[in-house]
Amino acid sequence: MLAWTIYLSFAGALIEALLPKGRHALARWFALTVAVAGLAMAVQGFVVGMGTNQAVPTVIANSAWVPSMGIRCLLAADGISRVLVLLTGLAAVAGVLFSWNIELRTNEFFAFFLALIGGVYGVFLSFDLFLLFVFYEIAIVPKYFLIAIWGSTRREYAAMKLALYSFVGSAMVLIGLLVAYAASGSHSTGLIALGHANLPVSSQMGLFPLVFVGFGILAGMWPFHTWAPTGHVAAPTAASMLLAGVVMKLGAYGCLRVAIGLFPHGLDPWGFSIAGVGSWRDVFAILAVIGIVYGALVALAQTDFKFVIGYSSVSHMGFVLLGLVTLNQIGVTGAVLQMFSHGIIAGLLFAIVGRIVYDRTHTRQLAELETMHLSRRMPFAAWAFVIAGVASMGLPGFSGFVAEFQVLVGAWSAKPWWTLAAGVGIVVGVAYTWRALQKAFFADGLPSAHALEQEHAHPFAAITWPEVTGTAMLVGVSLVVGLYPKILLDAIEPAVKALLAGGGR
Amino acid sequence: MSGIPVLTLLTVLPLVGAAVALVSGKHARAVAILTTLACLALALYVWMQVPALNGAMGLVETHAWAPSLGVEYHLGVDGLGALMLVLSAIVTLMSVDAAHRVHHQPGLYFGLVLMLESGLFGSFTALNFFHWFLFWELSLIPAFFLIKLWGGTRRGPAATQFFVYTMAGSVALLVAFLAVFVATRSMDFQYLTFQASTGALERAVTQHLGSGMLGWPVMMWLAVGVLAGFAVKVPMFPFHTWLPAAYAEAPSPVTMLLTGAMSKMGVYGLLRIALPLFGHQIAQMRTPLLVLAVATVVMGAWAAAAQTDLKRVFAYSSVNHLGYCLLGIFALAVPFAAGDPGQLASQAAALNGVILQMFNHGITAAALFWFVAMMQQRTGGHRGIDQFGGLRKPAPVLAGLMGITLFSSLGLPGLNGFVGEFLIFRGVFSLAWFASAVSVLGLLVTAAVILTVIQKVFTGPVPEHCVGFPDLHTGERVALAPVIGLMLLIGVLPGLIVNSVNPTVLHLLSQWRF
Question: Are B164 and B258 in contact (CB under 8 A)?
Answer without folding.
Answer: no
